Amino acid sequence: MKWANALSTRPSLEGAVLEVVERSQQLLSAPADLGFVFISSAFASEYSRLMPLLQEQLGVPVLIGCSGSGIIGMDSQLAARELEEEQPALSLTLACLPGVQVEAFHLDGEELPDLDSPPDAWVEAIGVPASSHPHFVILADPFTSKINDLLQGLDFAYPGSAKVGGLASGGAMGNTIGLFSGDRLYREGAVGVALSGNIVLETIVAQGCKPIGHPFTVKECERNILLALDDGPCGSGVSQRPLEALKTVIEHLSESDRQLAQHSLFIGIARNEFKDELEQGDFLIRNVLGVDPREGAIAIGDRLRPGQRIQFHLRDAQTSAEDLEMLLQRYQSRFSASNSSIGALMFACLGRGEQLYDQPDFDSHLFRQYVGNIPVSGFFCNGEIGPVGGGTFLHGYTSVFGICHPL
């Protein structure tokens, strides 16, 4: 099992395609079964030419990809690079995967099965039996893919399968996005690949936040509006309005964290209902959308239900770095003794990268420091797809890694 990536910054699409094909094939030195291609929005006017140019030079049976305003890959010195701000860039990954069944798919958002449909309807749409326990890489249009419905449906039909990916991104001037599969360019829906057989897809989902205060239990809510919180486990404490609870939490913060709470406050929803001691990484992070001072209520970017546990969180560059490093250390402690990883895909939020850390290539370099010098490729997304607490979700401000190795 082998994995190779090549990144080109040539301004000519023909030149970029030629460079990534030649270098990735030299690095792989074996017939490829699967390919991923990520293309900068600097080439937006030439998206329709990409797959024909690649197909002329490649014999890979399954090839999917998408556009991004920033592209991630390996340069000629085999160093990971994150090329942002719509620089001309093309990243090509080729993988030789003996014993792995590879199935590509394209799904139109308007043709997805109803969420009340049985699992068989989703299995039919994907074309892969649930008994094969596939793992998924999903690339989607931010506007037409009905991505949340798709992720719920896939979790329903394929429980326990890893699912990673991202929403394609375009240029700041409103350039359209591109999705690629086979020899086709799609402007809508989602493309993806299902991998089953001799392969494992490990995931790291770095949401870049740290918890503050202590967990609360949702006592009263309406859709996405927090109306009352209970400060005891399982609703055994004192009921209070969410804004009152937040003010108490902020009063006990350091001065720097108080300043951060003014503009970088989030709410984490615990995904494991049965875990007694919640810790960093156990929460699905969601935006605070607004507050109602008269009612003491807080609106967040997700639906709520009574009995859920929530905790306030903060995010900044240092917190994001510490969160990713903590998750990488956990991964290293689990797999360092028998690390057989061959390659990884990285899906990073447009809000991360150099504008967050004030230095280039931060997440990808930290990843390779802990996981090893395996090829990494991907793009900067309009939203990142990855699992938290047994379910798959669309995230923001997150870096999601999918790490492949044989069984």
From TrEMBL:
Membrane recorded as keyword: yes
GO CC annotations on file: plasma membrane
Residue ranges of domain FIST C-domain in the record: 242-388
Residue ranges constituting the FIST domain according to the UniProt record: 31-233
Record key words, sorted: Cell membrane, Membrane, Transmembrane, Transmembrane helix
Cellular compartments annotated: Cell membrane
Bilayer topology term: Multi-pass membrane protein
Protein's name according to its UniProt entry: Small ligand-binding sensory domain FIST
Native source organism of the sequence: Oscillatoria acuminata PCC 6304
